[in-house]
Structure formats: C-alpha cells, structure tokens
Amino acid sequence: MTELKTTSLFERLRTASASVCAALVVSVAMFATSVSAQTTALGWPEKEELKFGFIKLTDMAPLAVAYEKGFFEDEGLYVTLEAQANWKVLLDRVIDGQLDGAHMLAGQPLGATIGFGTESHIVTAFSMDLNGNGITVSNEIWEKMKAHIPQENGKPVHPIKADYLKPVIDEYRNAGKSFNMGMVFPVSTHNYELRYWLAAGGIHPGYYAPHKGDTAGQIDAQALLSVTPPPQMPATMEAGTIYGYCVGEPWNQQAVFKGIGVPVITDYEIWKNNPEKVFGVSQGWAEKYPNTHIRVVKALIRAAMWLDENNNANRPEAVKILAKSNYVGADEDVLANSMTGTFEYEKGDKREVPDFNVFFRYNATYPYYSDAIWYLTQMRRWGQISEAKSDDWYKETAKKVYKPEVYAQAAKALIAEGKAKASDFPEFGTETGYKPPQSEFIDGVTFDGSQPNAYLEQFDIGLKGDTVL
C-alpha cells in the first residue's frame, strides 16, 4: 500500500537538536495560545496521531487537501493517509481498528450497520462530495448505441438514456451472449446509479437474495453487473471482460484518453447533485474520541470549502495535489478534465459541466438523513434488504448512521473562529435533516425521503411492498 506519513510533535522533539527543540517548544507554546479559545469549547483531541484510508479517486480530495494545507495540524491532529487495495479491505480495516477512519462509499456505513455483508456499526458525520461518477461503454457498444441516439449539430443529444442501450443488449441476448458491466462494490453509489439508469431504460439489472445466500445480484438480470476495483475498470473493459462500467473519476476520462471507450452519461444527469462519498468511522471510535471526531470534521469542512471557493479557483492546484502518486496518481490532464468543470464524452466532445465535482456548495458536506434513506431504498429495491420495512425503520436507521449533530458542532466552531460564515451552512436550529422532495432524476420520479415506501411504489422494475424473492 502507498503511504504518506507524518510524525507527531513529540517524535520531532526527541530527534531534534537542542536548538531546534527550543524553537519547537516556542512554536508549540504559540500554537497552544492561538487555539486556546477553541480548545476551551471543544477540548483537546483525545487521540492526536491518526491513520485514514482512501481509494485512488478524485473525490478523496478533501483528505488530501486537509493534509497538504495543514488543516489537520491546525486541529492538533497528525495524520497518515494510506491508499487501500479495495473497498472491502478499507472497510475491514476501519472495523478492526487498523484505520481510524476512511473515505467511504455512502452505502458502506449503512450496509455494514444493517448487516449486508460485514456487520458492524459504522457512522458518518461528513459527506465528502456530490456527483463525480460516470457510465462508460466500450467503443464497440458505443458504435451500436449511436444508431439509436438523437443527434443535434452532428453530436449526440444529452442526457443519453439507457433506452438507447436496450436494443444493443437485446441483440446480445438474442445471440446467446451475456451483457456484462462493472461497478465498484455491491453497496456503492455506482451500483445503484448504474441500476437506476438501466431500469429507467427498461433494462432489468437483477436482484440480490441474501436470505437465500445469493449475493451476486443477477437474479432476473438482463445486464449482468459485477465488481471491479476502480483503477482496473479501463483495462478490464479493454480486455473484453465487461462492455461498460460505472465508476468515479478519473477512470471514465481515462477511457477517453486511452481511446478505448466513451462515457455516455454522468451521475449528475442521472440524479442532479446526488450525494457520493462519506467519511466513515466506527461507532466505538466515535464514542471513544468525540473531540477528535469533531476536529477531523472541522478540517475536512475547511478542505471542502477551499476546493469550491472563488468559483473553483483552487482546482488547478488541487489537480497537482491529486496527481501525486501517493494520492490518485493519474495524469494531470486526465484529472483536470473533470476537476476543473469540463467533461469529455466521445473523443473531442468536451462539454462544460461545472458541477461535475462539488465538494462544498449546495450544503454538499452536510450528512442529510434523506440521503441515507435514498440508499436504503435502493438496497430494498434490488433485494439487498430482503423484506419490507416500515417508513420508521428507514428513518431510525438513517439516524443510527448519519450524525449531523457532530457536523453542527464542527461547523459552529469554525464560525466562532471566523473561518466560516453561518450562511455557509444549513440553519442548524431548524434543519430537519430532510431535503425537500427531489425530482431531478433521469426518469422524472420524485424522491421524498420522508416517505420511502411510497417512493418505491413508483417504480415498474424493482422490489416494493411485501414482495420477497
């Protein structure tokens, strides 16, 4: 695994010369004085040296920025950032304590807490970003799709619906061929976004049946979805093992640069301003280190603000940071394609997508209960939750996992310190944790987080009500 290490002040003091020690002591004293007001309010971190995990994707940016810009150290935290092999390893290492926390798929804390896969109570107090994913198909599939896609001025009309993929899949199925696609993890946003897009086009993406021991998710499937780690997506598609995939950046743009595939749609076009990754910790860790938790969230909020401030003016610098091998390690040109507000579909068809990556605006960092409920409804829709659940169950589960009260403490501390404005955040005194009903989905279906079962009833494809496979 790739590591980026930092050392504590005490280790530095032990190894420094006497003169350097003296200088450091003065620096420590000045630091202590400068933060005395905030420590009175929050208390010192119970644990100063921390190790956080991440996957090599652009949306790990808040962690990298908080490290590189010194926001963690401002909170008295000395952090190691470590790339992980895959999402399962990352989750397991948070559960067993090898990692203090991690950049996670939004569905991971929920899936773990309800016992789909590895069972463990994981919580989040920070949403890392909105949007950031895309669906890419191979050149061969793209050429077949193009015959069905409306054109305007010689270019495909966006958003490109799965309706235009359906005749291609039908052709493969009629020839006795399975149509294989990749996503990054069973409880990933990518899995649910790909399934949502396919189903909106009349393509059944398959069911899970964990109560029968079936966790493949391919029951009744017309398109067969399977797990592929994000960095391996382009090579797996190039090898012909899969015909397309849903993944975060830079792995859609990588397909364009390599000339092996075409991104057909972004998740912004599937669900405008959808929540993506979260920062997750175990419930036990959160209970043991409450001050540390709040301070981590403070640093991450500052990083998210930096990433979006002045109309994304800092994004070119962020690209240089992410291009480092110990972070994402992709070419700057590939990273810049999405991070700086553009997105390239077919080679040469580059379009303005200013909100492809959102880290702070639109209250992106706030952990809304309704976001958690949307993920839970998708788990039910595709069988990961085998039986019907009441609306209250969805709401109670969201509250077990999402912790807006921790976020509010962090935000209020930043406001008191003059590092943020109250207008940057929701109105904490009246915020319910539920967004207004959202209708900007590719199929026009409206999602109201306060009525999860009524939401599920709107879909022709998917489990709902008392249906059990």
Spell out the key features of this protein.
single chain; 469 residues; alpha+beta; D-Maltodextrin-Binding Protein, domain 2; six-stranded mixed sheet; five-stranded mixed sheet; 21 helices; 19 strands; 41% helix; 17% strand; globular; disordered N terminus
Describe the protein.
Helix 18 packs across helix 19. The strands form six sheets. The chain has a six-stranded mixed sheet, with helices on both faces. The protein has a five-stranded mixed sheet with strand order 13-10-14-7-15, sandwiched between helices. A hairpin with a 5-residue loop joins strand 17 and strand 18. It is of the alpha+beta class and 469 residues long. Among the domains are: 186 residues, Periplasmic binding protein-like II (D-Maltodextrin-Binding Protein, domain 2); 140 residues, 3-Layer(aba) Sandwich (D-Maltodextrin-Binding Protein, domain 2), CATH 3.40.190. The protein contains 21 helices and 19 strands.
* Sheet with most strands: 6 strands, mixed
Instruction: Give the structural class.
Output: alpha+beta
Strand order of the largest sheet: 1-3-2-4-16-5
Radius of gyration: 22 Å
The CATH C-level class name of the domain at 45-127 and 276-343 and 355-367 and 403-424 = Alpha Beta
In the predicted model, the low-confidence regions spanning at least 5 consecutive residues are: 1-5, 7-40
Counting copies of identical and different chains, the oligomeric state is single chain
**Shape estimate:** globular
The CATH superfamily label of the domain at 45-127 and 276-343 and 355-367 and 403-424 reads Periplasmic binding protein-like II
Q: Which CATH-level-2 architecture of the domain at 45-127 and 276-343 and 355-367 and 403-424?
A: 3-Layer(aba) Sandwich
What is the helix tally? 21
Count of DSSP E strands?
Answer: 19
Distance between the termini: 40 Å
Taken as a percent bin, the fraction of beta residues is 15-25%
- Give the proportion of residues in helices: 40-55%
Give the overall pLDDT as a whole number.
92
Question: What is the fold-level CATH name, i.e. the topology of the domain at 45-127 and 276-343 and 355-367 and 403-424?
Answer: D-Maltodextrin-Binding Protein, domain 2
